[in-house]
Design goal:
Structural class: mainly alpha
Order of helices and strands: HHHH
Mean pLDDT: 82
Low-confidence stretches: 1-16
Number of strands: 0
Number of helices: 4
Strand content: under 5%
Radius of gyration: 32 Å
Shape: rod-shaped
Length: 150
């Protein structure tokens, strides 16, 4: 075959399944470049599909976790409201009611501020949300291509 032949896939030209080892020996440079282009295109498309699937999976898990956490948070807030009311009523037996409410509010603001600061630090450590498995796979693919070109 010459460089001017009509471009067709290797399978069409030889009639053999792709991947047969002896095919490579009989291919021209143009055919090898065509084959490389097709394989790189397929590899990139596969990696993109894997990245999308991985991000969808992470998004789904995050959504379910966030929903459950939100429901739990609402229940905890009702419980905390009851505890705050109990604390104010308990302190009101010793202090004036307005002072009891003020003391409980100050304690809650302090604890809430500490919890919010710790949560913010942990959230920063979790960023960026990237498809880590796909990124590692792409790096392996690039390294393999680099090695084969040497």
């Amino acid at each position: 075959m010459t460089h001017t032949d009509h471009p067709r896939s290797t399978t069409e030209r030889t009639g053999e399944p792709p991947g047969a080892a002896h095919q490579i020996d009989h291919l021209s440079t143009v055919q090898l470049v065509e084959r490389l282009t097709e394989q790189v295109k397929a590899l990139v498309q596969t990696e993109i599909r894997h990245g999308i699937v991985e991000m969808k999976d992470k998004g789904t898990r995050f959504g379910v976790g966030a929903g459950l956490s939100g429901a739990g948070l609402v229940i905890v807030l009702y419980g905390l409201g009851a505890l705050v009311a109990a604390a104010v009523l308990g302190l009101a037996t010793v202090l004036d009611p307005w002072l009891a409410g003020f003391v409980v509010a100050i304690v809650l603001v302090g604890v809430g501020g500490i919890v919010a600061a710790v949560g913010g630090q942990r959230a920063k450590k979790a960023l960026p949300p990237t498809p880590a498995d796909t990124r590692r796979s792409v790096h392996r693919d690039v390294d393999t291509v680099k090695e084969s070109l040497r």
